[in-house]
Design a protein that fits this description.
Number of helices: 1
Structural class: mainly beta
Largest sheet: 8 strands, antiparallel, barrel
Order of helices and strands: HEEEEEEEE
Strand order of the largest sheet: 1-2-3-4-5-6-7-8
Number of strands: 8
Shape: globular
Length: 156
């Protein structure tokens, strides 16, 4: 029991102590700058929710995914995290998708900052039967085990 509480505390702490700056790559959108998308070759998906925070009431999170419909195009994202009663952080960059998670071969894992070091990447997943819900994953790409906490963003 005590070990489980300690693990939960560490997971929540890690989620709230992510790096507050991002590094850009040449040609990449810099942190804090809006992603500019134009034309019919891009589709947008927006997910929102309040994720748990260890030392604040929650993290009001908005994830905008800009899917490029052309072959070889860059998929871009903009992640806005408002630490309630605190600071706001905006991260932007590239993302990719991976097929399959656990027993669901048609689930999709979204890897934010896939072209950056692993320490700067974030992971979200939606099951094939729940495409309107994105589950925030741990650094190890696992589902959060504390079912009392909400780690889900809903499609808008």
């Amino acid at each position: 029991m005590m070990g489980g509480l300690l693990l939960l505390a560490v997971l929540v702490w890690v989620g709230c102590t992510r790096p507050k700056t991002t590094t850009g790559t040449p040609g990449a959108v810099q942190a804090g700058q809006p992603v500019v998308v134009t034309g019919d070759s891009v589709s947008t998906a927006v997910y929102k929710g309040i994720l748990p925070c260890a030392d604040c009431p929650g993290i009001d999170t908005t994830l905008k995914l800009y899917y490029t419909k052309t072959t070889g195009g860059d998929n871009r994202f903009e992640l806005t995290e408002v630490y309630i009663d605190r600071d706001t952080f905006v991260t932007s960059g590239r993302f990719n998708t991976e097929r399959g998670y656990g027993n669901d071969n048609d689930a999709t894992v979204i890897v934010l900052n896939y072209d950056q070091p692993e320490s700067e990447q974030s992971y979200y997943m939606h099951y094939s039967i729940q495409p309107g819900e994105l589950h925030a994953l741990t650094i190890g790409r696992e589902l959060h085990t504390d079912t009392r906490m909400n780690y889900i963003l809903k499609k808008q």
